[in-house]
Description:
Blueprint: E1 2-8, E2 16-22, E3 29-38, H1 41-48, E4 58-59, E5 63-71, E6 83-86, H2 110-114, E7 125-127, E8 130-131, E9 133-134, E10 144-148, E11 152-155, H3 161-164, H4 170-181, E12 189-193, H5 197-208, E13 213-218, H6 221-230, E14 234-237, H7 242-249, E15 257-260, H8 265-273, E16 281-284, H9 298-302, E17 306-309, H10 317-329, E18 339-343, H11 348-356, E19 362-366
Parallel strand pairs: 4-9, 12-13, 12-15, 13-14, 15-16, 16-17, 18-19
Antiparallel strand pairs: 1-2, 1-4, 2-7, 3-5, 3-10, 3-19, 5-6, 6-11, 7-8
Bound molecules: nicotinamide-adenine-dinucleotide and zinc ion (2 copies).
Amino acid sequence: MRIRAAVLEEFGRPLEVQELDLEEPRTGEVLVRLVACGVCHTDLYTASGADPSGYAPTVLGHEGAGVVERVGEGVSSLAPGDHVVTLFSPQCRECVHCRSDQTNLCLAIRDMQGRGLLPDGTTRLSRDGEPIRHFMGTSTFAECTVMPEIALAKVREDAPLDKACVFACGLSTGLGAAMNTAKVEPGSTCVVFGAGLVGLGAVAGCRLQGAERIVAVDLSEDRLELARGQGATDTLVGGPDTVERVVEMTNGFGADYTFEATGNVVVMRQAVESARMGWGLCTVAGVAGKGETLDVVPRLLITGRRIAGSSFGGVKGRDQVPQLVERWLAGEIDVDPLVSQTLTLDDVNRGFELMEAQDGIRSVIRFGEAA
Ligand SMILES: NC(=O)c1ccc[n+]([C@@H]2O[C@H](COP(=O)([O-])OP(=O)(O)OC[C@H]3O[C@@H](n4cnc5c(N)ncnc54)[C@H](O)[C@@H]3O)[C@@H](O)[C@H]2O)c1
Ligand SMILES: [Zn+2]
Ligand SMILES: [Zn+2]
């Protein structure tokens, strides 16, 4: 079939919306018609050429939500008409990592996905017979995509897909960092550094876990206000003295749980230093720049602080994304303030501009709508 998609032709250049060919789904694959897709930093990171493992040409996009149109042979968990959220982090339910409750890093298709190929080592996307690689196993800046069954989470049909797409990446990452990785305990004190989609998700996750105090730290007053809306009890404008201020606010000890959601290694260090001695746990969700390292005084660890990293919030996508969506529909998670702009596919580069200007939390592309 012919589809319209936003193609990264060359690093550092705007995406080009073009017509491409998309083949039918093969064994274990599913054809999804996208309804909406969020524009995320990882798309921009790859588009800019900063990601050393990036490749072009490719169709970017990984925060997709849509409707199953057709399924390939052997697909048993999804059928045409099902509503799905795309997963750049799949869940095969069989590999050694899927069988462990300690990680969500499924091993089933990792190598091929990293190379821009579907699990059988080929692509379904092409242009004039030339293969075009898939991005993050998703390529959702497109009217339709073909993805492995194990990389799709089936969600309730009454969940509006133009909001549900934020569960495909940033929001679930933040929620899961608090709920799965840190497993925040009721009554605890938490500090969240960064109040973008990931940090706001972490604030909401701390609240859902029953944290008593949630301090949000950001440079933007507007974003701190949004953090209050998600459950922050205190806010701080970030700066060189943030650690001292957190320590002062917590009887001289620091917080039980800290979360880093900025991608800045200086802030990561502050997040480690803001965790309390004895048991303070710092969860790092931000993605640092190429070659950057986190500087930590080892004594902080000997005296009981711990550091954990979190990819996609430790969320096992097929099992847990539907559960998070349930909690949203039950009124426990407020998604509306997180989707700030709605764009058409042709406006995809505008989504990058808005992100760079920090104008709003998430821009969402809606497919099939007139410009
Ligand atoms: N681990 C994962 O699976 C995963 C998934 C998605 C995103 N990420 C990463 O998480 C990070 C956050 O993503 P996002 O979409 O929320 O980004 P964002 O840019 O929308 O939010 C980052 C926030 O950090 C704030 N900030 C910057 N410097 C600060 C400082 N010195 N002190 C306090 N706050 C500061 C900014 O004002 C901004 O609000 C990024 O690094 C992103 O790449 C990781
Ligand atoms: Zn993302
Ligand atoms: Zn697996």
